Amino acid sequence: MSAETVTKFFHIGGSDEPVRLRDGSMLGGVTIAYETHGELNADGSNAILLFHALSGSHHAAGITPSIEGLDGLWQPELHDGWWETMIGEGKAIDTSKYFIVCANYLGGCYGSTGPGSIDPETGAPYGSKFPSVSAADQAEMVHALIDSLGVGTLVAVIGPSVGGLVATTFATRFPERVRNVIAIASGFKTTVLNKLILFEQILAIENDPHFNGGDYYADQPPLYGLALARMISHKTFVHLDSIEKRARQDVVQPDDILAWYRVRDQFQSYMLHQGKKFVKRFDANTYLRIIDMWSRYDAAHEGDAETPADLFGRSKLAGQRWLVFSIDSDFCFYPEEQAELVKHLETAKVDVMHITVHSEKGHDSFLLEPDLYTPHISWVLGR
């Protein structure tokens, strides 16, 4: 039985001390939701910082049945930690040895300040007024958080998927704070293909008649647009063979009817089900902010570096060691993207190990197959 965990809240700034973001936007104070696991040692040297994927949360392990101040988005499927198989006593990220910190992104919808939060100047949700956020903004917020917790040099910063982008930015903006970096199914710079796939998702939400430019909180949210965006992305997260296997176990539901079209097979029904399920637990504005962050990602730019060599030269000087995972069946962050990251690290003479995981699960392998990652992560953390 997993232990119950409690979401905590870290506050930065306020109405008299606004928080400035990378693009110059100002927020009248920021709240970051986070959870911790394990105990911080006396000198703060046993901490691991974890960043979550696109639609994930700060709740990585244990059971969190509710979050203070959160509305119906915290659905039962979120109550169990998303990396329960990797975090805990005796697991890859061993809570008997390490103190793990995981925070919900700025712009999020699970307790951190985001578009659905109340703007102190208007008393209404930010909605369309909530600014764009960058990976650098995320790194700065969490850097302030770990300072407040008394964390010194991190044993590691770890991030799968989009979390790997933010982990890379944290490690290169604050190289002296990080000993090891573990990036899983991530990359160095968003590809043209991903930019186009993400743009399709943006258009899906923007064209929902209920979107209203992002100011929909007093009315009907853009459920169809968000569901379509999720369906577009889902087929890149899950290998098509796995989608086929899962879909064949389903039957077409009698209510799977659109305005005119009736869903004809299990595959369409499966994807529609994924979209319907997702809109119950996520906010469209948050989705837009995070995929915008992903679409614009360039590690050198986020690290304020002129070149990749300049960026990773910091990692070399700090003596960082990197572990980069590829998944050979990944259609979201293709293995070529990790190869590019590794090439830049090797050029800067950073200590890097590149592991290719052989899986039929696609991008979501890191969530589903802990045995493929545990030996390598345990070895790196224990060096």
Poorly predicted regions are none
The total count of strands amounts to: 10
SSE string: EEEEEEHEHEHHHHHHHEHEHH
> Structural class, from helix and strand content?
alpha/beta
Strand content: 5-15%
**Radius of gyration from the alpha-carbon trace, in angstroms:** 20 Å
Taking the sheet with the most strands, its summary is: 8 strands, mixed
Q: What is the count of distinct domains?
A: 2
CATH class of the largest domain: Alpha Beta
Q: Which sequence of strands runs across the widest sheet?
A: 1-4-6-5-7-8-9-10
From the coordinates shown, what is the CATH architecture of the largest domain?
Answer: 3-Layer(aba) Sandwich
Q: Approximately how much helix is present in the residues?
A: 25-40%
Please state the average pLDDT score.
95
Report how far apart the termini are. Answer: 30 Å
How is the CATH topology of the largest domain named? Rossmann fold
What does this structure look like?
The chain has helices at 135-149, 162-173, 192-206, 223-237, 240-248, 266-279, 284-295, 299-302, 308-318, 335-347, 365-368, 374-382, and strands at 8-12, 19-20, 26-27, 30-37, 47-50, 99-103, 154-160, 178-184, 321-327, 351-357. The chain has 383 residues and is an alpha/beta fold. It folds into 2 domains: 8-190 and 297-382, 3-Layer(aba) Sandwich (Rossmann fold), CATH 3.40.50.1820; 194-288, Rna Polymerase Sigma Factor, Chain: A. It has an 8-stranded mixed sheet with strand order 1-4-6-5-7-8-9-10, with helices on both faces. Helix 2 links the parallel strand 7 and strand 8. The longest helix has 15 residues, at 135-149. It is globular. The two termini are 30 Å apart.
